[in-house]
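B., you asked whether I could sanity-check this one before it goes into the benchmark set. Here's the sequence:
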Amino acid sequence: MDFYYPNRTNDFWKICGLLFLGDVDALYDRNSRTFDVSAIRALMTEKHIALNDTARAVRRLKGNASDKYLDIIEPVPLYDLLKEMPACRSVATTGEKAAGVIAGITGTEIPKMGTMVIAPDGLEIWRMPSTSRAYPLPLAQKAEYYARMFRHLGII
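And here's what the prediction gave me:
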């Protein structure tokens, strides 16, 4: 899948399906055994959710997908991106590594999981649990963290 969170064992699209559509499999195509990118893009557009990586250039220090072994060479130009989305008032990260990158860019503390800090310019910085299955938290508990944030933002 040429989009975010393509691994079908990752919980991100399942959480979105559950919270926005009432079904963990709503964004999954059983026939192709992949997530439905068209449905995902439509849902993200409808909910005004933008996705982006926290780095433009990274180096994997080990041959696996763990964020623990990522060396961030060039962080994302967050404020340049936000200029393109003037109505955006919140940024959420999925995991500790991404939270650290965004905290470095915004000059904030790393929020505790499921909470936010407010940057000097008023931007809300949220830290959500990793949606990787390697993170040992049941999907329903992860979804509750996301539901609290989405309720705060008025998305659900």
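One thing to flag: The helical segments are 12-21, 37-46, 78-83, 96-106, 139-153. Otherwise nothing jumped out at me.
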